[in-house]
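Posting here for the record, re: nicotinamide-adenine-dinucleotide.
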Amino acid sequence: IPEAATPSATLREEYESLAEEVRRHRALYYNEDAPIISDAEYDALFRRLEEFEALHPELVSNDSPTQEVGGEATAAFAPVTHLSRMYSLEDVFSIDELNAWITRAEASIAGIGNLPPVRWLTELKIDGLAINLLYRRGELVRAATRGDGRTGEDVTHNVFTIKDIPRRLAGTNHPEEVEIRGEVYIPTKAFNEFNEALIADGKAPLANPRNAAAGSLRQKDPAETAKRPLSMFVHGVGVREGIPARSQSETYELLKSWGLPTSPYYEVFDSYEKVLEFIETYSEKRHSLIHEIDGIVIKADDFATQRALGHTSRVPRWAVAFKYPPEEVHTKLLDIAVNV
Ligand code: NAD
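Prediction output follows.
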């Protein structure tokens, strides 16, 4: 038996304790909406686990946090099985890592053949929480959080209180069933005003818009959710049979025509250089937008390409999230040479 197949007890213990630490912070973040470390610290911890697993693949178990979508459906809400799975996103933390990711993706696409030249839909990574809306014949019948990607929490009645989200879709060309995925968030201005009102009332302010959005959506009493200034932007579709769209961008236009809130900030580029310019632009503008962002999401626009690339157990292979560096170490991103 090769040495790698029999990891020492110490190595296994080290691995288990690292995985457990990631799970603990995930539970605080997703289940309690109350993280105790920053996202950058969490990302660094997660990266350590990934690197550990790359060095010791024999230790990786199916329930490792790297193999699963983070979060679970807590007992506080009725469980909902999504019609099609929800995923997380692969993160990259530098332009070098993004270059490598794009090079790999473009090589896979070229290798598959018969696919149109890749176009990259580039959009903001909204710092909120994922929602899955099920519309039947144009009527909103169910809304669920992502949970572990297979099963989420039923928050339908809370979602009914969000003004951005139509109970009935506009237009007529609706399929029998469609799952709309998006991000529920609190706009920065509304968040600040909400906090000022709390402070004036002698109450404790909310920590940040992301956790406030998650906590607000996951209230037991919809009347409480209704008091919170929640908004939503769509960023995907799950089950979509019968949708007359061949790409992510065509889908956004269709959803917009149905009265769903689409982000004004997305663009489709046929050159990667333009993607980099978009990243640079929003790195400067990121604090003057209507909502907080924690990065930029880059997706192959074409659905045939998305289908051909597929998914891992945790993330799609046709999309990537570029995370901006934490503020204190922020440097001009494009100083790094681009060679793809
Ligand atoms: P993620 O948030 O990095 O990416 C996936 C999610 O991004 C999707 O599920 C979707 O909801 C969201 N998203 C926002 N804009 C999007 C867009 N335009 N297109 C597609 N999706 C978009 O991954 P994750 O697994 O949900 O969470 C991991 C992240 O959460 C970490 O990187 C960390 O920042 C944070 N986190 C923090 C802690 C902590 O303790 N501070 C713990 C767990 C997770």
